[in-house]
């Protein structure tokens, strides 16, 4: 949801400054494909909205299924927030794609290559997963030792 809101804000800031034809594909740092600014905004915001809807729907379905888990605290409840936020990774990549396109077309500035941005986001996402799973495993091992 955060990346959808950030994308809407970003589109609102850059929309008046964009040219009618926006470069979105580059070959050797030279734009070789263009699209209208309205179509670009739609192609960037519609997937963001789609990801939010998928995340919301999946989280709600999993929560409904959670009613049928055994009583007591299980790792399942602790993983729900993580599961709902996993879709934030592709949303972050789309946000940075949008930012890159806008900065190039308005200011002729290029950030770091997109593949490096995606790699950084994926590594950070992997670190978050490792930390969350490690904490969950430790917490439930301690509980099983205390009750066992």
Question: What does the secondary structure layout of this molecule look like, with pairings?
Answer:
Layout: H1 2-14, E1 21-27, E2 30-36, H2 37-65, H3 75-85, H4 88-107, H5 114-147
Antiparallel strand pairs: 1-2
Question: What can you see in these coordinates?
Answer:
The chain is mostly helical and 148 residues long. 72% of the residues lie in helices and 9% in strands. Strand 1 and strand 2 form a beta hairpin. Helix 2 runs antiparallel to helix 3 and helix 2 runs antiparallel to helix 4. It is elongated, with a radius of gyration of 20 Å.
Helix/strand class = mainly alpha
SSE run: HEEHHHH
Number of helical regions: 5
Q: How many β-strand runs?
A: 2
Strand order of the largest sheet: 1-2
Radius of gyration: 20 Å
What share of residues are in beta strands?
5-15%
Number of spatially distinct domains: 1
Please state the average pLDDT score. Answer: 88
Helix content: over 70%
Nutshell version of this structure?
The protein is mainly alpha-helical. The protein contains 5 helices and 2 strands; from the N terminus they run αββαααα. The longest helix has 34 residues.
